Amino acid sequence: MLPEDPSARQPTEGPVGAPAEAPVDPRDVAPGRQHDDAGDQHGDRPGAPPSAPSVPALALRGLWRRFDTKIAVAGVDLTVPAGSFYGLVGPNGAGKTTTLSMATGLLRPDAGQVLVHGVDLWAQPLVAKAMLGVLPDGPKLFDRLTGEQLIVYAGLLHGLDRDTVVARAHDLLAALDLVADARTLVVDYSAGMTKKIALACALVHAPRLLVLDEPFEAVDPVSAANIRALLADYVRSGGTVIVSSHVMDLVQRMCDHVAIVAAGHVLAAGTLDEVRGGRDLEDVFVDLVGGRATGEGLAWLRTSSASS
Length: 308
Prior knowledge:
This protein is an alpha/beta fold. Helices cover 32% and strands 20% of the residues. Strands 6-7-8-3-9-10 form a six-stranded mixed beta sheet, with helices on both faces. Keywords: Antibiotic resistance, ATP-binding, Nucleotide-binding, Transport.
């Protein structure tokens, strides 16, 4: 059941790259935090406690969230296997962003539990968040920094040494085609460039789990293809990606697991083949969610061009 007074708990939101509670102290996380890329393999990513292969990358257990009288998320249970590319799809207002916000520590649930590689997010937030890379919906950035400064700042907040952060920032700027705009203030970036620089901030500390809310929105096709290739390589190296998207074809091409969410509930979840059942994902989605419109009341629209 929902707690009687969910309004007593407030969201813990902040700009991308900013600490949610306090700056991360390297002494508060597992050994290896200050190491460079040589130690950033599947089981030795910065801040990551050892975990058995069977431990999910993310486990959501009975998540609830209510805003005034509206229940946005109603008892969501979801298990994301480690090493998977997991797609989260649903109509507008389905509760996807609220669920991902609770899963990454940006919004406190009214009830339920979030486990990141077996670590309770709300009981051990610094340890859990060290393993997370997050691209939220409508990221809040320190936009009076240049793109390069923003990435470096995000890396320093995660406890990396400056030389490592600067090297990684250059790599990320090149991979995301932002080298020419590295010294441009983020406030002057386009929507697509802002999305890419926020993704770079989510990647700089080599997280074990990436949670991306609509990462391809406003991104041009070439950049989108580069980002897909980057994420696919990340998963092949042992990382886990959760991505929300409205584009079914994109999810079908990228993801090996998928969950369909509507009205705050998970309607179907599993491997892509299990959820599709031999059908197109969009057809399964529409059948589960409902609401297909026929356009029968728009006869005047079909005849308007013929009469002109």
